User: Fold this.
Amino acid sequence: MPNSSTGDFPTPPDTAPSSPFVNISKADLQGIQQNLSSLTASLNSTPESRQSRSRSRLSKISKMSETQDQKSNKNEFIEPDFIDADIITATQHGATNRCVQLLESGDFNPTEVDEEGISVLHWASINNRVDLIQIYIQHGAFIDQIGGELAGTPLHWAVRQQAIQAVRVLLENGANVTILDREGLSIHHIAAQLGSWQILAMILAFTNGQNIDILCQQNKRSPLMHAVVSQQMITVQVLLTLGASLKVQDLERNSVLHLAVQANFAGAISTVLNHCLRHKVKSNAWMKFVNAPDILPSPASLSKIKDLMEQENAASQTPIQAAYQNKNFSCINTLESFEEKIPNYKKKPYLPPGYNKHSREKLPTGLRGLLLMPDKIAFKIFGNLTEETKSYLCFFLPTIIYFTFAYILSHGANAPHIILSLFFVGLTIKLMFRHITGKTSQRFIPIGFSCGIKIFGMVSACIWYFKYMGWMMNLLWFMICPLTWYFLLKTARSDPGFVDAFDTKRDKEQAHFELKRILWAVSEPPKDNRQMRICSSCLIEKPLRSKHCCEMLTDRCIARFDHYCPWVINVVGYLNHRYFLLYLLFAIFIIIWHAIAALTYLNALSVTKYNQPFNFLPAKYGFKEFFFLDAWTFCLLIESSIFLLWVSLLFGSQIYMNVFVGSTTNEHINFQRGRHQKDEAKMDQYRALKHGCISRFTDLFLLKRQNVDWRKVFSQDDLVAGGLLRKVSGEVNV
Assistant:
């Protein structure tokens, strides 16, 4: 078998140099004598007889020239270097005409093999000679011939060389995918080891997912296990999407997590366990109608993770015990982060601030230990709460902070009393945040602050401000307030534009057929100068302007992806972008209303206390008098000003980029990155589409009678068909 890594193959034999001397055999000498005697006879014959003999010789010469021309015409399509090459050399170098010539002449039979069982089909497969593979199979070559040092079939050779086109042709012609080579490996294991995820997905799509958990002969490991041991991250994702089992154990009863620990591959642990969290069937009947990413793991997903983490190998070790034995701290941290998600699974020991859980330092005692008593009390209360409870606390804590600080500032007797109260409240909040913020729960803090300022303003309006505002302003508040919460709910809990992934399709046979069509197209050169993009996590063709998002529990491709927004804890995409912009707009309205109401209220208090409007207080009154006129309202004004600034900037930038520039946030960032890196291909991929502002606005807010479905747009031709773009003189324009 040749060295496939370097591509070295036997070169065609050099032709021997021509000699200046000619060796004439005895038979040639007799032929020359006969020609001389015939020439003498013709000279002695009559003119009529000479004329007839010349005609016969001319006819023979013309026939000989015709046959010679036919041979030369047949040889002129054969590469000059391979006219005399043998079948193996011609196959390795892709000299198709020479191979066909040898087959038609009967000099070679494609069923013949050498002493190692290697056939020409092996050589054609390893060199990705698709046309020769078809020719040899048509001439009777055995497609599952076993040969070579590893006793592999031509399909084994093609997979080892990662020749995807050869693999496709062999699969189409009925190659057996379950044959094991001398090492006990099938083509599934080889592709998993090499990280050839496209070939592996093609094989599984062709067989409708059969043999995805085929075990190798030596240690009874599945392809997923081989991918983990070889640290092939994308291949691990592909196998999980295609439905690889996580319950398989090898001869030593090692699971996928055990093997990831042995390979010190923390990324595989995170990928496997996150897959269990994100891919599930919704159990709540109401949630079946909410096609939005989950914000918290389901009990069924957590139970599945618990079962995986409690699997023991032959040494009676769980994955985390094996990680501690091997001192793989990255794997330990990853496994422990998922342990924290499981309710009542394992109580954490108390660790003071700055202490490493893997260090052997003793806990502080004496005065330092006494100073840590508040932290120990906070850990006792909040340290072992479930992740769901911590998430709710992180969501409501900003609202509590708003009201607590405003109450202290407005009801404080004097400055020392206020400072002391703020100190103790701040210390309590710090201790709470230290023990309730985790990888999942901390994601609820931004949306908690966003909702908290609205709740703070609405409560203040209901208690104090309504009686100072006119009925028109109050009616406006009752219109704006519900719409703000409505659009926030629609943005956070609606479908952002999910593209159907492989594992979300119910008809698995149709899903495998579609995957096979995509991979078939990838294995061929592009016909329309369009580079097909495949998502290795969803195993689908990525639509135009889409992106795969892994934030929270999403793990899906989003059509016309803009960005992930922590303030609404959801992705902003094709279907909920309009709700997001309307939410920002009404949030600006409600903040402005609260600011106007606060100023009106302060003005009324100023008139009552100082007999002058708030805006015209004399300079003798300083900041203290201004602030303590109503500290609660001043807090609302300060917070409203901050939120009004960034919400207005966010709304303006969204409208500018999506309407006037024509790019989403994701496209704008990647285009600028490609410009900085001088990557023309990246710039072309993320370049803004050429259509007008009105067309962009109507598409953004889905105002057309028949809008473009960005989940099914793969090229600009689809946009032309959808009516968003029009083609003039072969070019796509507005």
